[in-house]
Amino acid sequence: MKRVEESIEDYREGIRRNVAIISDPFYGEADLMARAASMAGSEGLRIDGRRLRHDFGILERAPQRILVVDEAHRLSLRRIGGFDLMNRFLSFVTSEERLFITTWNSFSWRYLEEVLGLGRHFPRQIILPRLDAGQIREMLLAGRREGELTFVEEEAPGGDSKVLDWRVSRRAVMGHNIDLPYPSVDPEMIRSRLKRNRKEKESAEDAFFERLARISDGNPGVAEHLWKEALDYPEVRSSLRDPPTIDLDFDESFVLGVVLSSGSLELDELSEVLGPVDLSAEMMAAILEEKGLVSIDGEAVTLKPEALKIDIEHERRLRLVW
Is the pTM of this model over 0.70? Predict the structure, then answer.
């Protein structure tokens, strides 16, 4: 955020350096853009690329000096003529004296940088980094009290010792001896169990966040999604859902790469890309959904967060993204 603030301050002092914030899908840069728009105040206009696809004139008519554009990569599609709107946007950026603060899907950015040379239009590029296990822990436990959550191992720890046992006391009642059972607590066992549990709790928590960082590939949005699945307040289950395996032919891989380069697409947008190569957007999206790689909600086809890492690995292996 500091570099975005510097760009706005520099602009107000007469130095314009347009900003590109570049990240993988789900990273959660929307909060960053909201803060940028707030800092711009009445000088700023915030708008997203999807809306500009339908009415680019909003940008041209805007009187504001600072233009905050979410998901600018949506101004292009991988099809013949798919760069027309992006070229119009870049020409607009070049011809204006206004400041542009933009976000980009990292895969689209790298592709468009090769094809259109985006970097020269946005000299201040901010690549959002992956987080390590410690940073993810700090993010997810912010605002929690120490010890508020219990990290539960799915497999019960071994050990046959019992804290609570039943013993028998023989009493004489009305001339007869009667065995009366009573519960007995072993204080030594309690102390031992507490000590052992404390160590297990620490190791379970450490193991959880290490695994979370690995599965999410350090993507905070994916990590938060998986965290919500694991959290059953006040317990956190140690088992995280394993990502699905990928078994796709080339056409299916191509479609997955198209979705990956946007994070999500409307079916009509996907049809614009797939129509010229005689592929049905509805059918391809349904195949990817069945394989656990995307979800379909109405017209929107969206990557599944838990599959993001293996999606990227698969697409890079085929050199469909880089």
Answer: yes
